[in-house]
Amino acid sequence: MSASGALAGYRPALRPRVLLSDGLLDGPATVHLIKDPDSGNSFKVGPKEHFLIARMDGERSVEEIGAAYAKQYGRRLGDPHWQQILALLGARGLLEGTPAAPAAAAEPAPRTLLRGTLRLVADADATTAGLHRAVGFLLSPGWAAPLLLLVLAMEAVVVARSGELLLAVRHMLTNPVLLTGIAALLWLSTALHELAHGVVARHFGGRVAEIGLRWRLPAVIMYCTVDDYPYLGSRRHRIATAAAGAVMNLVFLLPFCALWLFAPLDDATRDALAALLLLGSVQAFAMLVPLPPLDGYKIVSQLAGATGLAASTGSYLRLAVRRDPRAAAYPRRAKAVYTAYGAGALLVLAAVAAAVVVGVHHLLTT
Prior knowledge:
By secondary structure, the protein is an alpha+beta fold. The chain is 60% helix and 10% strand.
């Protein structure tokens, strides 16, 4: 059976700016995310539904899309199936010519002295666009490659002289003035970390929804929300956007490293710069730990091609440990991804714990 009559000639078109993601593992299934940026509404569909929706460009008719579907999946869709799909998309306001769906209701979180958020700019996307015009040239290969090489060289020095840097941290902790100055610089680095996410996302065609402050006293941090991160053009772009913050933290340290290595300084200033180098490096690499909600988790999720990676891994491993028959229903790729992520996360946590133990031992015995 296939579409017939007027329905066969209908040329459905998605509304402009509707976003479609790549295929993503979600538990044992593969899904695609669909989002209407105007309303903020999003939902998941399977590969077959995505195959149809991705071809609704206003150029191809229902008959033509149905023929491509039949070639791909070996069966034709009849009128009832087409009517169901088009009615669903129309009800969600995703088809051209249908009423826009109402925006998702989002109650603002209550703001108190102890916790809350505060927007810093009225138009975060325009602000990020301005920042991109000012510093976007740094993302070109001619600038990015030398900066990354300098960062690698700096981190090699940090590792080679980590014992010296640890002692500098201990000295810094006994000096309230230096401690305050370094804390301020690390906070500035955190703010630049967030803005870097937005600038790199903008570079790849993304949209920044909000820039502001979030506090959970005593912590106060800046945040930058990339509204359409899962829908950026390619996996490489999404990984670069997620990694941008940690790279910014390390680039921020480069001039301080140069001063520490080459400038004639008094002992207190040298210790302060050494402590900043170590703590700033730890800050950057801590963000790359592959646990939610850290940037490293987003990177690993993109490498794995998965959404809800931690939750899906937990669900699968619990079934596998109990030898539940439902674990066997997971496809081979899902089993490999969830097993690798679970083992990898444990290894990373063990490495972090070992580094902490070695650092504390060095401080106590030196």
